[in-house]
Fold this protein.
Amino acid sequence: NAGVTQTPKFQVLKTGQSMTLQCAQDMNHEYMSWYRQDPGMGLRLIHYSVGAGITDQGEVPNGYNVSRSTTEDFPLRLLSAAPSQTSVYFCASSYSRVAGEQFFGPGTRLTVL
Amino acid sequence: DAKTTQPNSMESNEEEPVHLPCNHSTISGTDYIHWYRQLPSQGPEYVIHGLTSNVNNRMASLAIAEDRKSSTLILHRATLRDAAVYYCRSGNNDMRFGAGTRLTVKP
């Protein structure tokens, strides 16, 4: 199993550009989530999904969209990038929201100029 | 959703045990307690979780208070590779992380 994969690993955007961060898992997990981590800070939940076709907002959803058309994929879209979105983005998945262990991807380091 | 409080930082000497505390005073009866850690420049990784009984695995032990309002992650012999931020989380519907405890291990 590849686990949770994220692409790209690094990305530089200009203010106003849009892009999609990709996340995929091959563990047939129902639960997937996106977090951002600013330098020296903790993780903040952006959006999450409890299954294909179902998504919900986390702590800091503004400026981001998600969709979950398949169990495997959970892309995160930046609609109009801003310097405040410079961060490291982590995707995670788990088989259970209650007792399950979350598996994290390696992260995408995004810089918005 | 349950909230957790942890000390901002702790220090340990190499090869000594480390006890990392977490308070989760608003935990409900069915909430699991999870611990994760984040090594420098890496994503978080799962350490251990439990409900009521103490738990052991190859990485650590989890001691849960009888009233479940607090728990302690125990690293039996800290190594330099255990230096990380340790996050405690409780609440079955809460996928958020708090600030965690930054553990420094001194040689």
About this structure: Chain B touches chain A at residues 30, 32, 34, 36, 38, 42-46, 49, 51, 85, 87, 92-93, 95-100 (CB under 8 Å). The radius of gyration of chain B is 13 Å.
